[in-house]
Design goal:
- This protein has 9 helices and 9 strands.
- The chain is α+β, with helices and mostly antiparallel strands.
- Strands 3-4-5-6 form a 4-stranded antiparallel β-sheet.
- A hairpin with a 5-residue loop joins strand 5 and strand 6.
- The longest helix has 25 residues, at about 115-140.
- The protein is elongated, with a radius of gyration of 33 Å.
- InterPro entries: YdbS-like_PH.
């Protein structure tokens, strides 16, 4: 008679009722023993895991070349990796262009003077070589910040790496001139117990506001983390109360 039929005893009145397997799996009844708070926590964890899988490009971490990335340890959390602002190349390249215009002008005006065009062209080649050297320096200069230290790599022929532990930073500020506010660069000024001249002043750094906030978040991360944990805990408790039946609130 009851072949293939499932029965379930109600805990409220002790009566037995026939359970439809498909309906029972699709919509659990009132006798379901699952905890609403446990369901809420599982949903929150699944939501966090889904968010963690989303990969977003970090504008403060520009992928460095292998010769620079090798200085960053695998155990370090990557915070900032940037070159200096392109404004550092404005002066040498504008000088090179202005020199070329001046050479052409003088060559047309004083072309009859013996060997003068060659001398002017040689002087312009010096300006071109200077612009190329400044460009090579810009390509090799990298400012890197991790959760443990600050690094500055620089040099073309002789590669140099300046390093400062993040725990030794006693004060950090940044300055932005009027052109820097329009073009988007600034100057980071850091003080430490053992003063490192290479890292004490990093000028013409792009996105200085974001860089300053990112490093400060790491320096004072414990306070921010505690506040975030308290806010998340309060949010979970509010959602748990809303999920419970009215008589249990």
């Amino acid at each position: 008679m009851f072949s293939g039929t499932r029965l379930r005893k109600s805990r409220s009145d002790g009566t037995w009722r026939v359970v439809d397997p498909e309906r029972d799996q699709a919509a659990p009844g009132p006798d379901d023993e699952s905890d609403p708070l446990e369901k809420l926590v599982v949903e929150e964890v699944e939501e966090v895991e889904e968010v963690d899988e989303v990969v977003v490009d970090d504008p403060l971490w520009e992928q460095p070349p292998p010769r620079v990335e090798r200085y960053v340890l695998d155990t370090e959390k990557r915070l900032v990796c940037l070159r200096r602002h392109l404004v550092v190349l404005a002066e040498p390249f504008l000088t090179c262009i202005a020199g070329l215009v001046l050479v052409n002008y003088l060559a047309d005006r004083l072309g009859d003077v013996q060997q003068l065009p060659n001398v002017l062209f040689g002087a312009w080649l010096v300006l071109l070589g200077r612009a190329w050297w400044k460009w090579q320096q810009w390509r090799g200069d990298w400012f890197i910040a991790t959760d443990k230290r600050l690094l500055l790599t620089y040099g073309v022929v002789r590669r140099q790496v300046a390093m400062m532990p993040l725990t030794k930073v006693t004060d950090m500020s940044y300055n932005r001139s009027l052109p820097g506010r329009f073009l988007g660069y600034g100057e980071l000024v850091m003080e430490s117990a053992g003063q490192d001249q290479a890292l004490s002043n990093i000028d013409r750094l792009p996105m200085p506001d974001q860089v300053y906030v990112r490093i400060c978040e790491q320096l004072f991360g414990e306070v921010g983390g505690a506040d975030t944990s308290r806010r998340m805990g309060a949010r979970v408790r509010r959602m748990a109360r809303r999920a419970l039946p009215q008589r249990f609130r």
